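Moderator note: this is an archived Q&A kept for reference. The question asked for a predicted structure of one protein chain; the sequence and the answer are reproduced below.
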Amino acid sequence: MGFVFELLGVSPVLDVFQHQTFRQHPQGLAYLSAPEARLDPFLESARQVSPDRGWNVDQAVDSVVRYWLRNAEAVNHWQQRLLESGRECLLVARLGDEQAYRNDLNALLAE
């Protein structure tokens, strides 16, 4: 099973908390957040959520690293947006298996 990681944007801390607490997320997807645009916090989050979801930790972590190495421009963009947004915001990302991404997209298209 392959994994996909992507940076989604910048959001206030309270919105991230509410999204994680009160929204039902498709199985196979995890939303991660960090107060800075650095690789280490996202790697640690990927390591933490993977066992709970039955994911291969090494594959999930590898997808985060590959994104970071291949998308420097996007990382820099979101780093700048995060700096502009102030201290009470987080950088939000999504990690999931490829099938969960397909299912989520199909659900959005069906709405």
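Archived answer notes: The chain is about 60% helix and 25% strand.
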